[in-house]
Amino acid sequence: MSWGTPRRVNRTFRTVFAVLCALSAALSQSSRPQHAHLSLILDRTALVPTESDWIGLRFELDPGWHIYWTNPGDSGEPPKIVWHLPVGIQAGDLQFPAPQRIPDHSLIDYGYQGSVVLLSKLTVPAGATSKQAEIGADVKYLVCREVCIPAKDHLSVTVPIGGRAKAAPEASQIQAAETHLPRPLPRGVRASAASTQDGFVVTIAGKSPSMGQATDFISADEQVIENIAKPAIDIGKDEVVIRLKKSEQLNHPISQVRGLLIAGDRAYNIDVPVASGKAGVQNRKLQKKVKE
Amino acid sequence: MKQIHTSIFIVLTLFVASALAVKVGDSAPDFTGTDSHGQTHKLSDYRGKFVVLEWHNNGCPFTKKHYESGNMQRLQKEWTDKGVVWFTVISSSPGTQGYVTSDQENDYMQKTHAAPTAALLDPKGEIGHLYGAKTTPHMFVVNPQGQVIYNGAIDDKATTDASDISNAKNYVSDALREALAGQPVAVATTRPYGCSVKYAD
Fold first, then answer.
1. Nearest CA in chain A to B197
2. Complex ipTM above 0.85?
3. B43-64 pLDDT, tens digit each
């Protein structure tokens, strides 16, 4: 028998296993994206000088895999993009739709599973003379499911400039992504925040049907709110009170509470100054009195 | 009776929950760990020395950033040369990323020229849970009196990109430098970054 003793068999298997491991490690380190398929999508078939258009960076993720929001939560890293644009064309900051809470062992991450489109506004100057533009992007991202894999991808799309711009086939995906972008609070609704000994109380005052659907608050800043502690939300008649637990890593006073209020399928930007301890409570009492 | 049991349970739960979170200024929870050579180390036996605890997972890209660049090994060498005790702690449970046998860890340390005082194998996550280690890397510094003086990230660049290391502010080195000079640690608590520690769920 060429396999020899059991020990040799064992060794052979171990060698084969080691080679396989090395091979898979080599594959995962290649620049070929793994577990995510990326593409650039546009909302119109052409760019029009002096106008702006959404461009979307779409991630289609394998089941169970996720990428990260701007605040990744307890672990992870948000994707980064470097645009390569023809002279004169500008791309705005990447805008992220509201993330999900993703449990990761004893941690909570903020990110996306399934598919997600990150948006950026492209603007074309008035005097653009070229007939078409090649929009390029280098994307670096971390994709995780139990384990994390750093990946990078180069994407490009060529689009005509001027002429008749019609809705592109992917326009509906861009629109869907746009509705999930954080928006300002509805008119007549105001937020305030106060610091307590071990947390923050954010009060959303004003009548709005959507506020009654509030289910979550996700901090935009790292190291401020304890991610694992889900906020306590009390929905009153015309007031929503959100109690947040301070992060153990927060060891200095903060001036603003920033984050997303999740209500139904919408996310609202909250960015409010923090009234310190007693003053904050007094303020809220005063507001109540005024209302009464 | 049932109520009494419930309240005892709640009190215990609170106690355990607060014990999990090791805060700067607390006395470092004592533990006995076994290293990759089979030797045991008791933290309190190292009173009188600074001790660094480094949570490790050899497959985590955030850990790889610091090992493939040689940054972690440089730090280990620099500080152990100055008398600091450095424990690499591996809390990955069997079957998860980063779990290693003693032989595998010794091979790894030899190949990567890692130079900690010892690599503690913690497959049950006992030391990890005792300190509330969240990520790899997650770093703690204990002073000669046995107090935690740093808890958090290795540096201020929460990325997997090795090119960020040269511009990073290394919190562990800063803490050690300040404490060795008899100064208070300026940045003593930060958000640890990296991969989740792969505890047995």
1. A105
2. no
3. 999 999 999 999 999 999 999 9
